[in-house]
């Protein structure tokens, strides 16, 4: 049974009910409805820390969903799970795929940027004085893209860019 149909005695099921209204009112195919159900179930499982269940739902949603925009959000959420699991390289692959389908996804740029300063710091700690600059440059580039798409978001990134002297361009 889909997670969204379980009776888990939640106090407030309003978000689920509201999310179901467009699926009932707007003409959609059965496949689109199924994809949406798997996506919502994936988000629900992810919010509860049930990452394996969330991934199963997201992969099924990807199998069913054909709209590139909707697929971008599924891919983004898969990337979030890999980030949460410390699998940053794998997460980056999903963020890149999400951006291929939806280049106006500032949160994907932000999450990609977040991984690079840590890599730069690790390189410094390991005595590598050449590589860190490239990692910091990548972080700056991705944060600038995120900020250009959502100027009032990512204040910490804007501060990092200012402190690091990378706010130019």
TrEMBL record:
State the SMART domains in the record.
TPR
Q: Does the keyword Membrane apply?
A: yes
Q: Classify the protein's membrane topology as the record does.
A: Peripheral membrane protein
Any single GO BP term: photosynthesis
Pfam families per UniProt: TPR_1
- The answer to whether the entry has keyword RNA-binding is no
GO cellular component term of the entry, any? plastid
Record keywords, A-Z? Membrane, Photosynthesis, Plastid, Repeat, Thylakoid, TPR repeat
TPR repeat start-end pairs? 35-68, 35-68, 72-105, 72-105, 120-153
**Which InterPro entries does the UniProt record give?**
PSI_Ycf3_assembly, TPR-like_helical_dom_sf, TPR_rpt, Ycf3/AcsC/BcsC/TPR_MFPF
Where is the protein situated, by its record's location annotation?
A: Cellular thylakoid membrane; Membrane; Plastid
Provide the function of this protein: Seems to be required for the assembly of the photosystem I complex.
Q: Which family does it belong to?
A: Belongs to the Ycf3 family.
Q: Which PANTHER family match?
A: CELLULOSE SYNTHASE OPERON PROTEIN C, TPR REPEAT-CONTAINING PROTEIN MJ0263
Protein name per its UniProtKB record: Photosystem I assembly protein Ycf3
Recorded source organism is Isoetes wormaldii
Print the organism lineage.
Eukaryota, Viridiplantae, Streptophyta, Embryophyta, Tracheophyta
